[in-house]
Amino acid sequence: MFENLRLGVKLMLAMGAAIVVVATMLTISNLRAMEDVIGQAERAELEGHFKAVADRILLQSRMAESLASLTAALPATQDRFAAGDRAALTAMLQPGWTAMAQGFGVEQFQFHTPPATSFLRLHKPEKFGDDLSSFRRTVVQANETRKPARGLEGGVAGLGIRGVVPVAKGGHHVGTVEFGLTFGQGFFDAFKAERNVDIALYLMDNGKASTFASTMGKTPLFDAASLANAFAGTAQIMHVQVQDGPRAVYAADIADFSGTRIGVIELSMDRGRYVAALADARNTALLVAALALALGLALSLSAARHLTTRIGRLSESVERVANGDLARPVVGGGADEIGQLALAVESMRCRLHNLVGQVRSHALAAIDSIHEIDGAVEGQAATSSEMSASVAEITSTMEELSASSTQISEHSKSVVEIANQTWEQSKRGAEAMDLVMSKMADIQHDNGNSLGEILELGTRSKEISKVMSIINTIADQTKLIAFNAALEAASAGEAGRRFGVVAAEIRRLADSVTDSTGEIETKVNQIQDSISRLIITSEKGGASISDGMAATSNTAGLLGGMVDAARQTTSAAQQISLSTQQQKTASSQVVVALREIVTASSHTAQSLARIREVSHEMTRLSGDLGQKVGSFSLETAGA
Length: 639
Prior knowledge:
Layout: H1 7-73, H2 75-83, H3 86-103, E1 106-113, E2 117-121, H4 137-145, E3 149-153, E4 160-169, E5 172-181, H5 185-195, E6 198-205, E7 208-214, H6 224-231, E8 236-242, E9 245-255, E10 261-270, H7 272-322, H8 337-410, H9 415-491, H10 497-571, H11 576-630
Helix pairs in contact: 1-7, 2-3, 7-8, 7-10, 8-9, 8-11, 9-10, 10-11
């Protein structure tokens, strides 16, 4: 079905399909790029919230460390702690602890002696002396390294933000002081209120998650496998649809003061604005793609119409040339492949125009020459017929003469009478021989003219062969041009299919011209063969005529001798017997010569008949050549 569509429709469909594919691919690519950008923006925002959590924990850790450092730097604190005066230390720090606990979220304030024994808990003064080294690694580390330690750490009251600073007196290490800030539901509620992002912390223990604090319920949004991946260090992100709308959920691990992972922070934020932005981007991309598709289709339709119009004009011109109209020029226009093809077809038309004109003129000249040859052959045939009749009469006469000579030799008594009769007959024979000589000369002259005309016809036929060679050369060049055009059409794909059809038509025209010239060459070769045979036959006829002329001349001489002998017979009867014997011998020779002349005349008549047949065949072939050439139109209708 696609093959039956017009070239313009094929071009428009191909270009439209290409535009649709490109627009679709670009739209899909742009949408994916937008989704990636929006996804990256979402991830960046969630990572920003996660970093804000980490920064807030770090900030509170530093605040706890600052409070501990300030306390450890007080000389009174150093003196009382070094003296082990728990009551004096409590009395000095209790008012400040009360203020910090009420207004700054400080939950713990205590002193430790190495390695991690509780010396004083200002938040629980009644409890002291217990060993914390089994689970309070910050205290152990600060006492061992004599350096501050801060961060998340579990304790008796649970997970908290710790700041532990060593205390020294006079260069002697006394112990450590610790501040613990609030890290629980209040911390997460405050974070949500500040950032409008839900947050939860799930502590991981042997692959199981337990909720430490959460603003979105006790059940994690991620499944156990995703939480395990997040705890292993691979941040997780997903999109969920809840009653409040679309949400973006992020999970990443969180570590304590030593860098050991202790749980997973899960963040959930509203992604409605990202969904709306993606929808707006998708609608814009689809609109742009639709506009691009409409514009592309309009351009492809314009281009297809332009190409099909030019190819249609060129096809009409090629069809005119194929039908034999060589008068009107081929117009293509443009400098592209179609224009080049039009120039090539116009060049072929001009060459065919000139070539057909030359062939037509040569064919007309050949026809005139053949008519002349035909007339000459007819005249020569008539002359040959007359000569044959004369020779037959002479032969009959000479046979009678021979019989008379025989009777003269047998009847010597009537020599004078017979001699007189012989003299009279000899005179008539001499006259007949003169007539034969004249006819033979005419035959020889006509045969020479015929041979010259035949040779001229052979020369003309060779010129026609040269013209046919030129036609074949032009046809071969036309085939090469059509073949190159077909290659260009194949490289253009479907867009060049109509162009390939035009190239095929040109090649078919070249093949038709080659076939026509082949037929003409065959006819010309047949003419040349006929001319060659005619030349050979004419030459044989000429030789026979020359032999006849020699025999006739000899016969004329003999007849002259017979006349002289007849005259002498009347005066020399005694020599009658000898003369009659000589006359008998001469008569026999004349009869033989005349028979040879008859044979030569018969051959000449046969040769002339063959020449006439060849002439008629040449006339027929010339007529066919004229019809072939006449099928081409070399002038416009108005010329």
